[in-house]
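Q: Is it fine to ask for two folds in a single conversation?
A: Yes, each is treated on its own. Send the first.
Q: Here.
A: Result:
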Amino acid sequence: MNKAQFIAYLAPQFGDSKKEAARAVDVVFDAIVRNISKGDDVMINDFGKFKKVDRPARKGRNPFTGETIQIKASKKVRFLPAKALKEIISGARKLEAAPKPPVKVLPKVAAKVAVKPVVKVAAKKAAPAKKAAPAKKAAPAKKAAPAKKAAPAKKAAPAKKAAPAKKAVKR
């Protein structure tokens, strides 16, 4: 799962707003990165721990030449999964049901008030329009010329068969 798929997965939790889900993901990742870069550990219960690790300088070998080389000291991020995450992945523990997205409920009073005026206004506008237009007799319709029949479709020519391969002649 990449970041875009992750945001799409979270969008229903944010009222189907990918924009809000993306912002939440960015805020979480930013908090993790900022704290790790300062040297603080980031622990998320039942998930795991992100921590900064200093790797000392060491000697290594160039795999092509076999020559001994010096590897510089570096700083890396290490993730240590929590016990609960390990148990879920190994199958020793069942994963809980995913949280359901919040249901949007409009207050009943507001819904009734919003619907009734719209219906009344539409009904009032429609009634005068019918009265204002006087009825006119339509002119007798002219007969349209009969439609021409389309030419029958041509049958497709049968596909040509490939010529048989020539046999090799021994000389």
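Q: Second one now.
A: Result:
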Amino acid sequence: MARVHVLRGQDRVFGFTLDEQGTNLPRQYGPWITFKTIELHHDEPYQGVDVSACLDDISKHGFHLTAAHKRITHLALESEQAAHKNVALVLGGGGAAGNAWQIGIIAGLAEAGFDMTEAADLVIGTSSGATVAAHVRSGIPPAELLAAVLSPPVQPVGQTRDRPPSSPPSLPMATVLERMRAIGAAATSAADLRLAMGAFGLESDSTLGPAAAGQRRALVASRLPRLEWPDRPMIVVAVDAHTGELAAFDRYSGVDLVDAVTAATALPGMAPTHSINGTRYINGGVRSADNADLASGYANVVVLTPFSERNGPLPPGQFEGLRRCPEWGNDLASQVEALRKQGSHVEVITPDPESRAAMGTNQMDPATRIPASRAGFAQGKLEATRLATTQSSGNTTRAADFKR
């Protein structure tokens, strides 16, 4: 049972909320006037109210809106999102090293006055970038995020340290990379590549065993600073293993954050596919290493990409990444070009030589995290100077847009 307060707005709009004063109702339909209070039960009808839709909206969004008895909650949500489309932060995939490098970059930018944890109206996370996105949206200051990478938390005296969840089994790295190269070479389109990678993931599940999925979900949960979706917009990207279709999870998807990030980081062969409501998902990096196209409509886009647009020969042994073709539109350069044609100002930050050296050849190795984050922090302060120079030249909006 829920005690729901009904308030009347303009033009026959009614708001349903658990907040007696209606302070969480969208302002564009106000002023709101108290109308009545009702009790709703999931299994009992109420005249003039779609009980299931009302309670579902309140659970997900905090309120339910109707106009002439028709649900318009989605219109209010879309209007709210459109009003805050200034800065999008895109966090690409890059393994343990790329994850730490991005946190270092974000801390370095913040140190120099560009706090992306505050400035970003939307954060998009792909693969390991999905975990970084959860940290960026956690409310933890950038300096503390970096400190957590550089030194694990100290257990208070007298408390027993909980054992971290064990790492789930995976196929040998060399086997996975060889298979990914073969899939990329044989693919005739981006859709073909996604389907083949999905099939590889489903095939690997039987080898990894039934317990692997639960072990991996527990491991992902242990690495998140919060287990609930943040209030501010964030998207984590996954791919349907059966169809190859995009899955852009956010707080309105009806999916737990832990499940969304587990799906978004499930690299075929290295991790089991992740099941959500009967559908199995794989790593969003299979679609694109960055998925920067999801920032469409934002005035300013900042992309932190550990893998894309790497210049020069790669260090011996470093994986070159899944095949990307400009004609397929799944490479970062194509996505950035499309964003710029739409009017977005896009800044792309890739590892500089010092960061690349610190990240090593095996970017999945946890031992790379401390050196990669330190190098990222130093690079982030330099990038802040570049961003300030770019903005002062009139090529984008005011620096204040990134310093909120």
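Q: Anything structural to flag on that second result?
A: Two points. The first strand starts at residue 2 and ends at 8. The mean pLDDT is 89.
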